[in-house]
Write a structure and sequence with these properties.
Blueprint: H1 2-17, H2 19-22, H3 25-43, H4 48-63, H5 71-111, H6 119-162, H7 170-203, H8 208-217, H9 222-254, H10 259-291, H11 299-318
Length: 319
């Protein structure tokens, strides 16, 4: 936990050190992707593609022998359908705006300061390896979901043969265990994919080799990587809920869009984009800590130590 706290502290220091840059260029580049993610949460449940995919996945699950009485059946079918349609809806913004935003953040953290000259040209050089790695990441996530599907089907069929599913309460227990296994596999896959993008940006080379290098790199540090990813995923989920509560709920009540609603929606999307930028900074700092055992600069300690001294002086004056 101390190492995790140190990485988060260095990430916050890096963000605050170049606050004007990170809150302007990368955040604005990630804004279209953030808008697409938030809007897709509202559009997807009513889209014909979602209903069609939901029925197709249900047929596949039933054909594979997945027990329809299990609680995990409905949850897995719904979440997979939503995830696939959300991914397709946001894909154009992912391979353009999001990757450009990540390239700008990686370049700034790599040089320890934002570039003032040839900004766009330096990001374009990183865009090609990031794009290749993003494509490979998609295949990895697809493979992880397919693996989870196969394991869960074998898992439920095994207990169905033993007659364990007929016992009262056993279906709920087995569904909870299956959901935990599914979450652990996908969480590790997402962590590897995010760090593989950072590695591709640093090494200027992408593809499956970046994923393999990332897998080797985080050996023994998986718990730290998951701990770092958890708060940011929770923050993103909280912002999505805020958008649903403040914007979508207001629209469903009034059945009309006004300027206040649009402004509040863009503000929430901007917060979402800033969180994506900060998550990329954390990935860069974590990658650097994995690549080298040399101690980081003490500027962060001096910075936060200065803040503590100023706070103490302020409290002393107040007393």
């Amino acid at each position: 936990m101390e190492k995790t706290a140190a990485i988060i502290r260095r990430s916050i220091f890096t963000f605050l050190k170049n606050y004007q840059y990170f809150t302007s260029t990368p955040s604005l580049l990630a804004l279209p992707f953030a808008v697409s993610c938030l809007v897709s949460q509202t559009i997807v449940p009513t889209s014909p593609l979602f209903r069609l995919l939901h029925l197709r996945l249900r047929s596949i699950f039933l054909a594979a022998g997945f027990p329809p009485s299990a609680e995990l059946f409905a949850i897995l079918n719904l979440k997979l359908s939503q995830t696939i349609v959300n991914y397709l809806f946001s894909l154009p913004f992912t391979i353009s705006f999001l990757l450009l935003a990540k390239a700008s953040v990686i370049r700034a953290v790599e040089l320890k300061k934002p570039e003032q000259k040839h900004l766009f040209s330096s990001w374009i050089k990183l865009l090609s390896p990031l794009l290749i790695t993003q494509f490979c990441n998609s295949l990895l996530i697809l493979s992880a979901n397919a693996t989870c599907f196969c394991l869960i089907v074998v898992y439920f069929n095994f207990f169905d043969v033993l007659g364990a599913l007929s016992a009262p309460g056993s279906s709920l227990l087995l569904s909870a265990i299956g959901a935990i296994i599914y979450s652990i596999i996908l969480a590790n896959a997402y962590v590897i994919c995010n760090l593989a993008l950072v590695l591709s940006g640093y090494e200027k080379a992408g593809g499956f080799i970046s994923i393999l290098k990332t897998y080797v790199l985080i050996q023994g540090r998986t718990a730290t990587a998951l701990t770092l990813a958890l708060p940011f995923n929770m923050a993103l989920a909280g912002i999505e809920f805020l958008f649903q509560y403040r914007v979508v709920r207001a629209y469903n009540r009034a059945f009309a869009i006004n300027s206040t609603m649009v402004f509040e929606g863009f503000l929430i999307a901007y917060l979402y984009a800033m969180m994506l930028v900060l998550d990329t900074i954390v990935g860069c700092i974590f990658f650097r800590s994995c690549r080298t055992t040399e101690p980081e600069t003490d500027q962060e300690d001096a910075y936060f130590h200065g803040i503590e001294i100023q706070d103490c002086k302020f409290l002393a004056k107040g007393i």
